[in-house]
Design a protein that fits this description.
By secondary structure, the chain is an alpha/beta fold. It is built from 14 helices and 14 strands. The strands form 5 sheets. Strands 1-2-3 form a 3-stranded mixed sheet. Strands 4-5-6 form a 3-stranded mixed sheet. The chain has a 3-stranded mixed sheet with strand order 7-8-9, with helices on one face. Helix 4 crosses helix 10 and helix 5 packs across helix 11.
């Protein structure tokens, strides 16, 4: 299929077509008085990135892992591991009501979309900065579902036979973004990774070893893996080296090696890989970014879900 037919295909379809093929929708809410600790538990238990916040039965916004990371980084970035006030500050963090954190990151605005809008419009919005999901509403503005960057890319992967073959064959070296790559040493603390994510306004960063080789990925969503109860566990989790948090096993000379525990291997591609292959990787592994590496496994750039969706927006625009 050529680009013009591919664009027409996406224009004719509706947001509801993606919802119909999405896993059964079970919307979770939290009250505006819910504590940060309990909200994190809801996100972790349901493997969610974001959850609507209600007040007196009405949705007033959403709270996202990026909002929680922003609050966490701002509050604890300078706290010493042995500081007397650590427990008190951690308790304040865990007990903070989520109503005070609505879009505190500035990257999680409440963005609804009608279920009968064209799928091409949905893709265009999701390709924009700081738009990771859209809440699908009906004529009465009731939430009937959610479409995320991940769910749309998963749908596109399933329907690739109806898409532009030439576009899917585009090489990584032709569309990989040229923006600076943000990375952090595996020796740094977990809290330093969250602070870096916050400072650079990104969702995830590469974790590298002493030779600069890619050995892990750290994202805002990893905050869900920390424990807020009892509060001492939160201190332990935030002030441990990334190599331990990510189960990166090393030998006595601190060289990365395989171990006997699960390890979150970063997913990577090279310049000759294609757009279609990148989409397959993010959907198969349920991830939000792939790293572009050189022959020595040193990360050169990162391709986000927004970057992948942007390729379809540009194709649709060119075909008009």
């Amino acid at each position: 299929m050529d680009s013009s037919n591919s664009a027409n295909y996406l224009n004719q379809l509706k947001v509801k077509n993606v919802l119909e093929e999405t896993t059964e929708f079970d919307l979770k809410y939290v009250e505006d008085t819910t504590s940060v600790g309990d909200a994190l538990q809801v996100l972790a238990d349901n493997r969610l990135q974001s959850v609507p916040v209600t007040s007196n039965g009405a949705v007033i916004g959403t709270v996202d892992v990026l909002d929680l990371v922003t609050f966490c980084a701002a509050k604890f970035a300078k706290v010493s591991l042995l500081a007397d006030e650590s427990y008190r500050q951690m308790e304040e963090f865990a007990s903070k009501p989520v109503r005070d954190l609505l879009d505190v990151s500035g990257r999680n605005a409440w963005k609804p979309i009608r279920y009968d809008e064209p799928l091409s419009k949905c893709i265009q919005q999701l390709s924009q900065p700081n738009t990771h999901r859209l809440w699908v509403v009906n004529e009465m503005k009731d939430i009937v579902g959610v479409v995320s960057q991940s769910s749309v890319l998963n749908w596109l992967d399933k329907h690739k036979a109806q898409l532009d073959n030439k576009l899917l064959a585009t090489k990584v070296k032709e569309f990989a973004p040229q923006r600076p790559l943000i990375s952090i040493s595996m020796r740094k603390f977990v809290i330093e990774a969250f602070s870096t994510i916050w400072e650079h306004q990104v969702s995830g960063i590469a974790v590298v070893d002493d030779e600069g080789k890619l050995v892990g990925n750290m994202s805002a969503a990893d905050l869900r893996e920390t424990r807020t109860k009892p509060i001492g566990h939160l201190i332990q989790d935030l002030y441990q080296p990334l190599k331990d948090f990510l189960f990166i096993r090393t030998n006595l000379k601190e060289r990365v090696m395989m171990g006997d525990k699960p390890r979150r291997d970063p997913i990577f591609v090279e310049g000759e890989n294609t757009l279609g292959e990148c989409i397959q990787l993010v959907t198969f592994h349920h991830i939000h970014r792939v790293y572009v590496v050189d022959a020595m496994m040193r990360p050169l750039s990162v391709i986000s879900l927004s970057d992948l969706l942007q390729q379809f927006v540009e194709t649709s625009a060119a075909a008009m």
